[in-house]
Design goal:
It is a single chain. The protein folds into 2 domains: 132 residues, no CATH class; 120 residues, Orthogonal Bundle (Cytochrome Bc1 Complex, Chain D, domain 2), CATH 1.10.760. It is built from 11 helices and 3 strands, in the order αααββααβαααααα. The chain starts with a helix and ends in a 13-residue tail after the last helix. Helix 9 packs across helix 11. The protein is mostly helical. The chain has a 3-stranded antiparallel sheet, with no helix packed on it.
Length: 305
């Protein structure tokens, strides 16, 4: 019995020590100074493409733009997108461009605390310094709103943010937005948008019990989205079966109208209304080309060549 108690005591001490190491474990990497001048228009465009307005504005409650989003209900609790205005207390008014860069690309707040992956920072990891400078310049034009977003309502053990360090180690995947040699410029632009800024895989990829994406099933659909909605498969082999083409998919990203004449509902309607309809026709077509794995519109119908 004494030996057993000794082993249990030793295991407890080891466990406590391991937990202490994880809690003290710093995450993220140093950010180089963002010394590039940002372009407000380019930043506003990228913010639309990235879903910032759609997520961080509570439209149903008549909230001010970027002052905090509608609640996101998940199996882990309810998350409230924060205030991103220039308010110094409740928004980003006291942030630096470097702190903003670390938040966007690494998912780490100014105090070193990791963000919950309800913020899709993993998709923004390849944003360039110019992208960050542009976004930062655009956010500096947002009027301050002296109003805090509600605190996240997350139960134990998911309220223990140190656990996010382990989550990041397991599920912080590179977004794979880099150009692929041999593919058209349009296809590569679509890849950059779909895999990066537009973060289509955040909804259209299934997730495991702890919220990590199943990378082996990218874009295979997700039947368990927050709020009980679903996202269909959007792989090249799936889309044609639902009568999607490059032209009507690009049109749907502008209007929300599907090939059947129906309209997108739920979160996808919001994506179009607050995001993709503001993109250029070329960018919407590029996204459609990538999703259908076509280098050009003409390649979709070789008989017309």
């Amino acid at each position: 019995m004494r030996r057993f108690l000794t082993l249990v005591s030793g295991a407890a001490v080891l466990g406590a020590a391991s937990l202490g190491v994880v809690i003290a474990w710093p995450v993220g990497s140093a950010v180089t100074p963002i010394a590039i001048e940002g372009n407000v228009d380019r930043g506003a465009y990228l913010a639309r493409a990235s879903g910032c307005i759609a997520c961080h504005t509570n439209f149903e409650a008549g909230g001010a733009p970027l002052a905090g989003g509608a609640p996101l209900e998940t199996p882990f609790g309810t998350f409230y997108p924060p205030n991103l205005t220039t308010d110094p207390e409740h928004g980003m008014g006291e942030w630096t461009a470097e702190q903003f860069a670390k938040a966007v690309r690494q998912g780490i707040g100014p105090d070193g605390t990791p963000y919950y992956p309800s913020f899709p920072y993993t998709f923004y990891a390849d944003f360039s310094d110019q992208d960050i400078a542009d976004l930062w310049a655009a956010f500096q034009t947002v009027p301050p709103v002296d109003e805090p977003a509600p605190e996240n309502d997350v139960s134990f053990p998911f309220d223990q943010r140190w656990g996010l360090k382990l989550w990041r180690a397991a599920f912080f995947y590179d977004p794979d937005t880099e150009p692929v040699e041999g593919r058209s410029d349009a296809w590569n632009r679509g890849r950059e948008l779909v895999r990066g800024a537009a973060h289509c895989g955040a909804c259209h990829t299934p997730r495991n019990l702890v919220g990590g994406r199943d990378i082996g099933a990218s874009f295979a659909g997700n039947a368990q989205l927050p709020g009980g909605s679903k996202a269909p498969a959007i792989r090249p082999k799936d889309l044609p079966n639902k009568d999607w083409t490059v032209s009507n998919l690009a049109y749907a990203l502008q209007t929300g109208i599907t090939p059947s004449g129906d309209a997108f509902g739920g979160s996808m309607a919001e994506v179009v209304r607050e995001g993709t309809r503001f993109l250029t026709p070329a960018d919407r077509e590029a996204m459609a080309l990538f999703l259908l794995n076509k280098d050009t519109v003409e390649a979709e119908n070789p008989a017309s060549n």
